[in-house]
Structures are given as C-alpha cells and as structure tokens.
Amino acid sequence: MDFFTWSIIAAAFGMGIGSIGTGIGMGIAISKACEGVARNPGASGKILTNMMVGLALIESLAIYVFVICIIALYANPFTDTVVELIRAGMGA
C-alpha cells in the first residue's frame, strides 16, 4: 500500500478512536448528571450548567481529532516529499 492509502487508514482509525473516547466520556457525564439531579433536584440548574460546559469541552476533543484527520488527508505536509520519492523511485 502506498502513502496515501496509509494516510486514509490512519485518519479513519484516529477518528474512530476519538469518537469512541468522546462518546464514552459524554455518556459518563450525562449519567453522573442524572444521578446528581436524582439525589438533589434543587441543584438541577447548577448541575445542568456544569454538564453542558463539560459536554462542550468533551465535544471539542472530537472536533480537534476531526480537524487533524482532515489535515492528514488533504493538507498533508509530507505529500510533496512522498510524491518526489515515488517519482525518483519510478525513474530509477
């Protein structure tokens, strides 16, 4: 397999791991927030606010992983070097 195929596989693997991690984190956060509201309904406003901020931070991690994957696919800094190496290898 060539460099570009490996870039696609790495981006897909990275996005999968990033999505799994953030999904687990969001599930745990929501679960604990529901437990907190069940124990103390009077604090639901503060719990909801803190949960939303936490979920936004967790979601930002998934967005960072997505941006890195897009960079790896479309703006890969090693593309020119790899293309030159491939051309040099075919010309030899």
Automatic annotation (TrEMBL):
Official protein name in the record: ATP synthase subunit c
Keyword annotations: ATP synthesis, Cell inner membrane, Cell membrane, CF(0), Hydrogen ion transport, Ion transport, Lipid-binding, Membrane, Transmembrane, Transmembrane helix, Transport
SUPFAM superfamilies: F1F0 ATP synthase subunit C
NCBIfam families tied to this protein: ATP_synt_c (TIGR01260)
Similarity annotation: Belongs to the ATPase C chain family.
Family matches, as Pfam families: ATP-synt_C
UniProt cross-references to HAMAP family, sorted A to Z: ATP_synth_c_bact (MF_01396)
Domain V-ATPase proteolipid subunit C-like intervals: 9-71
Record-marked site positions (Reversibly protonated during proton transport): E59
Location relative to the cell: Cell membrane
One Gene Ontology cellular component annotation held by this UniProt entry: proton-transporting ATP synthase complex
Keyword Transport included in the entry's annotation: yes
GO MF term set: lipid binding; proton-transporting ATP synthase activity, rotational mechanism
TM segment ranges: 6-30, 51-75
Membrane topology classification: Multi-pass membrane protein
Function noted in UniProt: Key component of the F(0) channel; it plays a direct role in translocation across the membrane. A homomeric c-ring of between 10-14 subunits forms the central stalk rotor element with the F(1) delta and epsilon subunits.
InterPro entries recorded: ATP_synth_csu_bac/chlpt, ATP_synth_F0_csu, ATP_synth_F0_csu_DDCD_BS, ATP_synth_F0_csu_sf, ATPase_proteolipid_c-like_dom, F/V-ATP_Csub_sf
